[in-house]
Amino acid sequence: MSKVPGQASTNRACLESRAVPLKTDAIGKEYPATTYEVGREKIREYANAVGAENPVHHDRDAAKDAGFRDVVAPPMFCVVYSAPAMGPAILDPDVGINLAAMLHGSQEFEWGEPVCSGDEITTTASCKEIYEKDGKGFYVFETVSTNQDGGQVVKGTWTNIVRGV
């Protein structure tokens, strides 16, 4: 249909933009556990990368003299062993995160027992909250990591924000 100048169109296409409701079915969903075997050299490499110079992160004897079982991981090493459990959660179609519009919101950690070389850490992830605020989607996940003896080494809260929901 062509439009004649000065004449109103009788067949206008009206486009509406509506927010797509956030999927919330995944709230409470738990994801398969991942396991990570902590190696002495990985701890050293991480410590070097983040500038953690304390000898307990590099030298077995120094760690043992300080009361640890072996070389001890810096606290934020928790991301190395807990992040793999987050992959399936973030990529879950039931969650519905638009990765192209996703921003890292925050991470919070509660540390328990120290992680040392030789530990086997098992991490589970779950979806805790999905909500909208100011046109953004907030996706909150929790990870719980335990060592081979069942001791909790860290609990993490991971918040991702998606623009334009």
Characterize the structure shown:
This protein has 165 residues and is an alpha+beta fold. It has a domain at 34-38 and 73-163: Thiol Ester Dehydrase, Chain A (Roll). Helix content is 19%, strand content 31%. The chain has 3 helices and 5 strands; from the N terminus they run βαααββββ. The chain has a 5-stranded antiparallel sheet with strand order 1-3-4-5-2. The longest helix has 14 residues, at 78-91. The radius of gyration is 23 Å and the shape is elongated. The two termini are 34 Å apart. 25% of the residues are buried. Residues 11-18 have low confidence and may be disordered.
Tell me how many strands there are.
5
Quickly count the helices.
Answer: 3
The percent of residues in helical segments reads 10-25%
Low-confidence stretches: 11-18
Name the helix and strand elements from N-terminus to C-terminus, one letter apiece.
EHHHEEEE
Alpha-carbon distance between the two ends: 34 Å
User: How large a portion of the residues is in β-strands, by DSSP E?
Assistant: 25-35%
Task: Give the spatial strand order of the biggest sheet.
Answer: 1-3-4-5-2
What would you report as the Rg, rounded to the nearest angstrom?
A: 23 Å
CATH architecture of the domain at 34-38 and 73-163: Roll
Query: Given this structure, which CATH class of the domain at 34-38 and 73-163 is correct?
Result: Alpha Beta
Reported by name, the CATH topology of the domain at 34-38 and 73-163 is: Thiol Ester Dehydrase, Chain A
Main sheet summary? 5 strands, antiparallel
Helix vs. strand class: alpha+beta
According to CATH, the homologous superfamily of the domain at 34-38 and 73-163 is Hotdog Thioesterase
Shape: elongated
